[in-house]
Q: What sequence folds into this?
């Protein structure tokens, strides 16, 4: 009701919901919904992002602007389930000369991905610090 939405209509319309649209931070179309993320901003609704790196970069920028963040979601890289970004473990790896970050629900999954990619495991705060900008 706060956002003027019809709850019953929203429930029906979200039956096959996948994150989609344009990533306003990285300026790209969201093409892989299970690699995308969402940030719920108080008073502004939900913003979608194309990747964990773009989501975390946008989150850091929004926090820097003093925006009130209700929550942020990402998808577990191994299981494809939605999880709170603040509760995830992150595998920070370099692939083809580019740094990348992958969220996981389970620390053992993040450790395995980091080991396979020659990277390291980060907690939420360090993951935020590691992603200064998704642009470029």
A:
């Amino acid at each position: 009701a706060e956002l003027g939405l019809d709850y019953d209509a929203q429930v029906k319309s979200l039956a096959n919901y996948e994150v989609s649209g344009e990533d306003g931070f990285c300026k790209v179309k969201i093409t892989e919904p299970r690699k995308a993320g969402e940030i719920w901003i108080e008073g502004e609704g939900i913003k979608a992002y194309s990747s964990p790196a773009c989501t975390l970069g946008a989150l850091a920028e929004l926090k820097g602007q003093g925006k009130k963040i209700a929550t942020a979601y990402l998808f577990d890289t191994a299981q494809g389930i939605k999880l709170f970004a603040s509760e995830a473990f992150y595998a920070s790896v370099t692939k083809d000369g580019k740094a990348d970050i992958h969220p996981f629900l389970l620390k053992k999954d993040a450790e395995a991905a980091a080991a396979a990619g020659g990277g390291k495991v980060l907690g939420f705060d360090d993951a935020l610090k590691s992603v200064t900008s998704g642009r470029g």
Summary: Residues 7-130 form one domain.
